[in-house]
Amino acid sequence: xxxxxxxxxxxxxxxxxxxxxxxxxxxxxxxxxxxxxxxxxxxxxxxxxxxxxxxxxxxxxxxxxxxxxxxxxxxxxxxxxxxxxxxxxxxxxxxxxxxxxxxxxxxxxxxxxxxxxxxxxxxxxxxxxxxxxxxxxxxxxxxxxxxxxxxxxxxxxxxxxxxxxxxxxxxxxxxxxxxxxxxxxxxxxxxxxxxx
Length: 196
Prior knowledge:
Strand order of the largest sheet: 5-4-3-6-7-9-8
Shape: globular
Radius of gyration: 17 Å
């Protein structure tokens, strides 16, 4: 007979630390949030290929427990960073992680894509896009990102490599440009720039 599951133990927060783009961060997560035990490979790839200025206003679209947005906030201390997710558990953990790491220029809020964000504009929008979000939602994300970026602003995404041709087509359709920054066996990082 198998040993009984220790429910009390698995209900406790998962706690770990990670250095992302030179920033040491502490995370609390829980089961049910994307990649709860470690920062996933796609997130690492995305952050490693982003350029963030210290005054940039940033948006993390689909933030989970906050690794991308928190890293952007640290790299852009003179800007403001917003983290959004449609999952209230992710948002709660992201906000707690922001506070836990003493990051004062970031906040997390509940939003389905851009639906609940006010009319603020961003220099950088970044997203580790879930593979199963669907083409319709991807189109909404891209058009909304275009509308919310400042002129010259950049949308960085990481997707499973199988979506790269779709992303290339949509970036060219919406932004008029596309640049592949890194392609690996599993993930591809790409950027589009809003025309000046």
